[in-house]
Amino acid sequence: MIATSDSPAAPPEAVSIGDGPSTPMAAAGSVDRPAGVCGQVVWPYAIAFLLFHAALPLMALPWLFSWTGLLMVPLGNYIFCSTGIGLCYHRTLTHRGLVMPKWLEHSFATLGVCSLMDSPARWVAVHRRHHQHSDHQPDPHTPKAGFWWSHFEWLLRENAETRGMAFYEKYARDVLADRYYMAIERYYLWAWIYGIHAALFFATGLAIGWATSGSYAEGVRFGASLLFWGVVVRTVYTWHITWAVNSITHTYGYRNYETSDSSTNHWAIAVLTNGEGWHNNHHAEPRAAAHGHRWWEFDMTWNTIRFLKAVGLAKEVVEPRVWKKAAAGALRS
Ligand SMILES: [Zn+2]
Ligand SMILES: [Zn+2]
Question: Which residues span the membrane (predicted)?
């Protein structure tokens, strides 16, 4: 176990990240839902949640199946979720663990929008609040208020504490200072981006299927297959593995660091999320762009960042302090 008293300085935003809990409550025990939560349902989220899940039994339809569509689930997870959400929303925009050229950052953020997990500003604001109060009141999604609460229920219930301009002003001012992210927020661009990317999946499948088979009907079938597997199934899949970081890796697994929350590392969640499952490491050093700290804690997203750095597309990459200590120790010995 490694102590975390030397956590890195907070990124430059209104609220400090990784400062630990607002109250000295122990990680064990239960926590009430945030006081701002009322019984009101967030209907747009609830309807999307129900419709996407209700479509899943269509997986049994042979007409909708294609190996390409199936391949788009893990491939789409990497492209839209790991680079869009993990690398961009999380490690770049929320924690400022690296800096990319704006065109690349915006491109990755656009891929993140295609995961249908909120706009960049809202995702960042909620996640910063989670780090500020991890597993203590008023963490928006601690499993100490219920496992399923942390997995998805918190998204479907109105929480007055995570709405309104004051919330964005406090937690995501730096993100909304960027005109592209402000436009995504203000003009609901996220809905257009998601819709257009879904249409592109269908159109690409239609064109390829029609061209290769000479049959329009086969083109429609292949397009529908890519739309269903590559967009609908992949979206639900990436929802659940991302939500598992809030639920499972605050409940099950092992800990490298004595953090004041109940965050854990879980190898299966890390494999599925391309590195986000090394969550105890992440809570110990939120700014570090690498979430796998031990040699065997494989982090695909970190390897992507290393590649970007090697080709000159990422700079100011923050590495875990434990690596620097290990390197210094090796030099001394
Ligand atoms: Zn967490
Ligand atoms: Zn984080």
Answer: 42-65, 71-90, 187-210, 222-245
Question: Please, what is the average pLDDT of the chain?
Answer: 91
Q: What's the rounded Cα separation, in Å, for the pair 249 and 233? A: 23
Please indicate, yes or no, if residue 131 is contained in any of the structural domains: yes
pTM for the model = 0.90
- pLDDT for residue 183: 96
In the reported structure, the alpha carbon of residue 131 is separated from the centroid of ligand 1 by a whole-number distance in angstroms of 6
Dist. CA 207 → ligand 1 center (Å): 42
Instruction: Give 220 Cα–ligand 1 centroid separation in angstroms.
Output: 42
- Which of 38-42, 249-253, 289-293 has the least mean pLDDT? 38-42
Asked whether the predicted pLDDT for residue 25 surpasses 50, the reply is no
Q: Please tell me the number of the ligand nearest to residue 150's CA.
A: 1
Per-residue model confidence (pLDDT) at position 29: 60
Q: Give me ligand 1 centre to Cα 242, in Å.
A: 11
CA of 31 to the centre of ligand 1 (A): 15
Predicted pLDDT of residue 324 = 85
Question: Is residue 30, in this structure, part of any structural domain at all?
Answer: no
- Over residues 50-64, the mean pLDDT reads 98
Start-end of H helices in the chain: 43-54, 67-76, 102-113, 120-132, 147-148, 154-156, 165-171, 173-176, 179-186, 189-213, 216-227, 234-247, 267-272, 279-284, 300-310, 321-332
Written as six digits, the tokens of 215 are 């049959």
Number of compact structural domains in the chain: 1
Between the CA of 199 and the centroid of ligand 2 the distance, in Å, is 31
Pick the range with the lowest mean pLDDT from 2-11, 67-76, 94-103, 317-326: 2-11
Give distance in angstroms: CA of 262 to centre of ligand 1.
8
- How many CB atoms sit inside 10 A of residue 19's CB? 15
In a domain, 133, yes or no: yes
**In a domain? residue 313:** yes
Range of the domain at 173: 63-332
Supply the DSSP symbol for 34: P
